[in-house]
Amino acid sequence: MPLLMEALAAAIDSGSDAPFGPAGALIPTIRRLGDTETVAEYDSLMEGSDRPEFKLLRKARDELVEDILRRHGQDRAAATANSMGLPLLDSDVKGTGGEPNA
Questions:
Q1: Is residue 87 within 8 Å of 101, Cβ to Cβ?
Q2: 47 φ/ψ sector (left φ>0, alpha ψ -120 to 50, else beta)
Q3: CB 19 within 8 A of CB 30
Q4: What does each C-alpha distance from 46 to 53, 54, 89 come to in angstroms?
Q5: Which residues, at least 6 apart from 12, have a Cβ–Cβ distance to it below 8 Å?
Q6: What's the CA gap between 67 and 73, in Å, rounded?
Q7: Is the pLDDT assigned to residue 9 strictly greater than 90?
Q8: Are 88 and 69 in contact (CB under 8 A)?
Q9: Among the ranges 15-29, 55-69, 79-93, which has the highest mean pLDDT value?
């Protein structure tokens, strides 16, 4: 991940931040593969530059945080529902086709 973040910083630093340029291609990849350390790397990029292009990474950073929280919640949804005695349609959680959990 550090190499992807370095590539993103270089792309933005060189002015290649067009939606279909290198930065536009790197951001979705970083979002798919990123973790909490990546969030910290986004923060470092934004704090380490006064250029407005780097401040615009806030949206990408926040989307990554939302994805991490969503994955974390999905991992625990079935167990939480079972512990509370709640039926859960877990097609998104376990891929069972929408059948209630046992």
A1: yes
A2: alpha
A3: no
A4: 9, 5, 40
A5: 23, 51, 53, 54, 57
A6: 10
A7: yes
A8: no
A9: 55-69
DSSP letters of 28-46? HHHHHH--HHHHHHHHHHH
Residue whose C-alpha is closest to residue 42's, from 78, 9, 70: 9
Residue 77 CA, chain-centre distance (Å), reads 19
54 neighbors 12 (Cβ within 8 angstroms): yes
Bridge partners for 44 per DSSP:
none
- The answer to whether residues 57 and 46 touch, using CB atoms and an 8 Å cutoff, is yes
Maximum mean pLDDT: which of 23-27, 34-38, 89-93: 34-38
Q: Are 11 and 5 in contact (CB under 8 A)?
A: no
In Å, how far are 7, 44, 70, 93 from 66, measured between CA atoms? 23, 19, 6, 17
